[in-house]
Amino acid sequence: MSAVAQATAGDAYSIASRLEAGLKGAPRGLLIDGKSVQAVSGKTFATLNPATGKEICQVAEGGAADVDLAVQAARRALTNPAWCNMSAVDRSLVLNRLADLIERDAQELAVLECIDNGKPATLTKVVEIEGSIKTFRYFAGWPTKFGGETLPVSPRSGAKILNYTVREPVGVCGLIVPWNYPMSMAAWKVAPALAAGCTVVLKPAEQTPLTALRLAELALEAGIPAGVFNVITGFGEAGAALVDHPGVDKVAFTGSTEVGKAIVRGSTGNLKKVSLELGGKSPQIVLPDADLDAAAASIAAGIFFNQGQTCTAGSRLYAHASIHDDLLGRIADHAAKLTIGNGLDPSVNFGPLVSEEQWDRVSSYVEIGQREGAELVCGGARPNGLGDGFFFQPTILANAGRDMRIVREEIFGPVLSALSWSDPEDLVAQANDSDFGLSAGIWTNDLKQAHRLAGAVKAGTVWVNCFNLVDNATPFGGFKQSGWGREHGRQAMELYSEVKSIWVNLS
Ligand code: NAD
């Protein structure tokens, strides 16, 4: 049993110190073919606690040679009868068992994610751990329901033909995920891939490798055969090696648009199937008749939740001129009420950014915004008295202009860029004037306006009088440069399978 599982219940601080003590010593290994192994190169890297800036432990730094071993293991597992002949019912069962094991270890996993990523443990428990449990349970329902169909073909010869389709696993999947929702992003990919019968090599982000390794260990415990779920920890080079590998049939990626484009270029060798969940710059559109209390609370949560490190963050506010100042004041009040600190403290609901690099990026955008003419309403700096952690205050920049970089580029931090509008004709054009198209929020009590705007906005998800609701049952993904394909729902099962059309001559 791993150090993580050996930890027993207790408060978050004592669980964290037990976990950290258990993780000292030998570096956390890669997980290849059911075994924890060090990198072929022997290289390791440090994973840090963003709340303290201190090292948690060393982790194996996978490279191309390790990716090759993991892909070979995944290819063998694809034809291992224990996996490829596993009945649909049994595949459901192992996925549900994995969900049970995540549930069993929920407290330790929530704390592990908190110390590795920085987000408060109260939130990691709900978003990462309970979210992942729901994802595995949802996709556990699909193997017994996901199949083909019989189709009424009309051959010219008049021959009697039975035509039917079957769904087959796409093969070995390279899954590359970011650091902002480490375990749930992994679950969003691993669960449908395994439900479809694929095998996987998961590459977690270098900032947050720990829960992915634990998840793969739990998968083994759940009865998923060795080699079906492998994990390569490491940097972008390991991800690129996975994208390049001829033994990988599909790449599913969540991360920045820039790296997404590199993945498309890198996957052409064997024309891998590619799905991409990329960046966003989501508009929050507020009409004059909106319920301002509800809108302010939700817009604040939509940009400050997870310290703004959310692909769907509502980072562009379009408030009607008549309510703009009132609304901004209310959002600033919500920002002021956030409790910033170490996420192990149960009263904290706003943790540090994930890294020093991310802190520098966010801070530089606040400077750029002010230089370009935006006005700082609140935040914009490191809060006092929180030591060496990567903390950044919730920030609002008003008087933003449509061509400013803070309106056009993804900051990926707790920074709201506010614009005011008065011309309804120009509103949709402004909201759509973006390279991204992941999501949008609309605030109004006018039913016609709500539906009109929901239809006009170019985004994969539109929320009306709500924001950031996500569910395994409904597709999630982006228009434009926010991605290719949709995760969740039946669409996710389709991403991880191939359709075969079979013609049988019955004449
Ligand atoms: P990133 O693109 O820098 O890294 C993501 C992953 O890709 C990491 O595992 C990284 O090691 C790997 N990687 C880096 N270079 C690579 C390369 N050349 N080839 C293959 N893999 C490579 O993104 P990040 O900074 O970790 O995450 C933030 C980004 O993720 C934001 O842009 C955010 O919007 C996006 N995101 C999108 C969604 C969504 O569903 N649309 C969800 C979460 C995050």
UniProtKB/TrEMBL annotation:
InterPro entries linked to this entry: Ald_DH/histidinol_DH, Ald_DH_C, Ald_DH_CS_CYS, Ald_DH_CS_GLU, Ald_DH_N, Aldehyde_DH_dom
Organism: Novosphingobium hassiacum
Catalytic site: E277
Family statement drawn from the similarity comment of this UniProt entry: Belongs to the aldehyde dehydrogenase family.
Protein name: Phenylacetaldehyde dehydrogenase
Class in the EC hierarchy, top level: oxidoreductase
UniProt EC number: 1.2.1.39
Key word Oxidoreductase present: yes
Keywords: Oxidoreductase
Record keyword Lyase present: no
Aldehyde dehydrogenase domain mapped to chain residues: 41-502
Cited SUPFAM superfamilies: ALDH-like
Pfam family, one: Aldedh
Gene Ontology molecular function terms on file: phenylacetaldehyde dehydrogenase (NAD+) activity
